[in-house]
Amino acid sequence: MDIKVFLNDICKKIKYKPARKWISDELEAHVLEIKENYIDDGMEEMKAEEKAVSQMGSAEDIGKQLNKIHRPHLDWRLLILIFILMAFGLLIASFKGISNNANYIEIMIIYMLIGIATSIFIYLFDYRKLKNLSFLIYLFTTIVMILPMTGLGAFSKGIACINLFGYYFFPGTIAVTLYIIAFIGFIDSYNKNNTINFKIQNKIFSINKDFIKIIGLTGLSLIMMSSISTLTNTLILSLVYLVITTTKIIFNKENRVKNILILYGAIGVCAFALMFCLKVNPFSETMRLLSSFNPEIDPNNTGYIGMLQKEILQNAKLVGEAKTEVISSNNYIITKDSNYTFIYLLGKAGILIAGILVFIIVLTSVKLIINAKNIKEQYGKFLIIGLSTLYIFQSFASVLMNVNMGIQSNINIPFVSYGSIYFIINIWSMAIIFSVYRKKDINFEEPKKSKLFTKIQNLIFETEEENENIDPELNN
Residue 406, SS3? Predict the structure, then answer.
């Protein structure tokens, strides 16, 4: 059997067609190497080729083994965990619907179906193309953040929102996730050699253009978030930025300790300067924070919700509804606001059911961390790290806040809070993670760049290819 027939027989067994050429080229190089060794030993070329092919083994067996390895993978374990979280969301929506005679569960199902249907396209989409669209994603997100300042603007609970065909939603809900995706693209594309040299008093200085771009766009996104959205969203976005940047520094291995010290030192100085500029009252802020953990300090003001939560905790049953008016009546914020989903579930269903929810959240978090560790392709790894950090922080911050062990803030448990655009965004985020996992063993071909998107992006920033064509002496 000659090499071409052997390779064709193997490729026929590989169902994922984009993998065939890469595998064929790799195997051909290996067979030719064995063939050359036989020729060097004095064997005729035809016999050397036949022996090299026979030494490889059965084409059918090799093809079957490679087909098992190099094929799209669906992370069934993570998918089951996500559906369990959604089931908890439906359970809570049913409790709210029974209590308020409202159609919470119908709304939840509608958003769930919309999210799942649209996420299929995201799952099948080559996530690596997002990297080339990073700036356009950033630009789109910034436009969404600006919309409340136009005729589409409105206010809900004192926060700027968008009124679109009578439907109100907060732009920060969308912006946090999209800004994270754009930031990951910027960080992953960072090139330490992309510098501009200039002279000051006969001394040559260098500025990295990618660094300036990242700092500028990151700062602008945080300003936009703090001005239009909530402080909670701003802090969450800052935290994810910090985790991704720290991960990038660790991966680079060069001057890791020095760069991390510089990063965190700069953040500390900026935080102090911001507090000074905003004239934050340390005493009032300290009281607000302390009342989140000990509501008795200010029971009628900042500790009011904490007192309601404490009453539920004190009257909670192992299984069943707590004997307290906070749960049985619809006049309390606990029963109305999705921020208090966990304590509402604990009060309605009992400690055991709420404990199972926490256990599922922990399992989901661990699975996401394991996935990030197992992904070899750097951009995909960063996407999972960034979006997983967002999920983990939101989930645990919300649970802790609900039991007076965290700061009171406007934050929900992903997939568990009843349906809204926030619910769909969470599904899309997970669809991206599933898309990364799907291609973890089949990243052979490079994703094609859109000429239109590339031209639009080049109007704002130069590409690396353009920079390579510039004479370095012109920068001096």
Answer: coil
**Domain boundary pick from 69, 90, 124:** 69
Residue pair 149/401 in contact by the 8 Å Cβ criterion:
no
The answer as to whether 246 is a domain residue is yes
pLDDT number for residue 13: 79
Same domain, 15 and 122: no
Q: How confident is the model at residue 118 (pLDDT cuts 50, 70, 90)?
A: very high
Q: What is the mean pLDDT of residues 176-201?
A: 84
How far apart are alpha carbons 391 and 411 in whole angstroms?
Answer: 11
Same domain for 105 and 48? no
65 and 80 assigned to the same domain: no
Helix ranges, 125-170 (H): 129-132, 134-146
Tell me: do 268 and 207 sit in the same domain.
Answer: yes
The answer to whether residue 456 scores a pLDDT higher than 70 is no
Instruction: Give dist(CA 10, CA 6) in Å, integer.
Output: 6
Span 442-467, average pLDDT: 52
pLDDT exceeds 90 at position 351: yes
- Return the HEC string of 49-112: HHHHHHHHCCHHHHHHHHHHHCCCCCCHHHHHHHHHHHHHHHHHHHHHHHHHCCCHHHHHHHHH
Look up residue 20 and give its two tokens. 């065939």
Same-domain status, 160 and 59: no
Mean pLDDT of 290-302: 80
207 has which bridge partners?
Answer: 196
pLDDT at 444: 56
pTM of the model as a whole? 0.81
11 token code pair: 């490729």
Residues 352 and 213 in one domain: yes
Same domain, 257 and 236: yes
pLDDT above 80 (res 454) = no
What Cα–Cα distance (Å) separates residue 277 from each residue in 184, 228, 271, 273, 301?
A: 29, 18, 10, 6, 26
DSSP readout, 275-326?
Answer: HHHTT--HHHHHHHHHHHH-GGGSTTTTTHHHHHHHHHHHH--SSS--SSHH
Strand ranges (E), 376-475: none
For residue 340, the enclosing domain spans 76-467
- Domain end call among 51, 69, 87: 69
Single-letter amino acid code for the residue at 114: I
Q: Is residue 190 part of a domain?
A: yes
Per-residue pLDDT tens for 133-165?
Answer: 899 999 999 998 888 877 677 776 667 777 766
